[in-house]
Design goal:
4 strands, 4-stranded parallel beta sheet, alpha/beta, Rossmann fold, 33% helix, 5 helices, globular
């Protein structure tokens, strides 16, 4: 189980409802550089990579994980994020033959009390490193968490404390790929 300060506060663990969490940056992770986005959906301003989203979707399905958004995209609400995930999955479904099973969306945003309306994202603000915002989130919702990983393309935003759960997306031109998927799946399984 997750070892975090919130587990030592005396609050009752929700053992039957524990979740795996993926702290997700967007730009450089599931929204690679513009050239890849243009090739995928011809919408350079905001298109998510169907390949990256497809891998993330499979990761969510197989590890029973939910997403918490760490990206600056969190400032504009969850609607644009959900819409772009759906568009990327629809692009993958267009590649399937009529006989093949449609890919369903398993990329669900975390939504739990307290303050369920804010639980899908780390707190807003720029003064702290991203991992410090993750700590604040874990202090509030950590009792729901079985395990977590962090997907980000900017290592300097992650403090050494989180290195064991951090998967660095080094090539923002490609984004989240098969190697990252394998690492994340192994990490979520190892800590479960």
């Amino acid at each position: 189980m997750l070892q975090h300060s919130s587990n030592r506060t005396g609050r009752t663990r929700r053992s039957t409802k524990l979740k795996n969490i993926i702290f997700l940056d967007i730009d450089g992770v599931i929204r690679p550089a513009l050239t890849v986005s243009q090739a995928c959906l011809d919408q350079a301003d905001n298109a998510f990579s169907p390949i990256s989203v497809g891998l993330l979707n499979r990761l969510c399905k197989l590890t029973n994980a939910q997403l918490v958004i760490t990206s600056t995209w969190r400032r504009n609400g969850k609607g644009p994020i959900i819409e772009q995930i759906e568009r990327a999955l629809n692009a993958l479904n267009c590649l399937l033959s009529p006989e093949e099973t449609t890919i369903k969306n398993h990329c669900q945003l975390f939504c739990q009390e307290p303050d369920a309306e804010q639980s899908w994202r780390i707190p807003l603000g720029n003064r702290l490193k991203r991992s410090e915002h993750i700590d604040i989130w874990l202090d509030r919702w950590g009792d729901w968490v079985q395990s977590y990983c962090i997907l980000d393309d900017i290592p300097s935003l992650i403090t050494p404390k989180h290195n064991a759960r951090f998967i660095s997306i080094e090539d923002a031109d490609i984004g989240f790929n098969g190697t990252h998927y394998t690492l994340a799946r192994s990490l979520l399984s190892a800590f479960s």
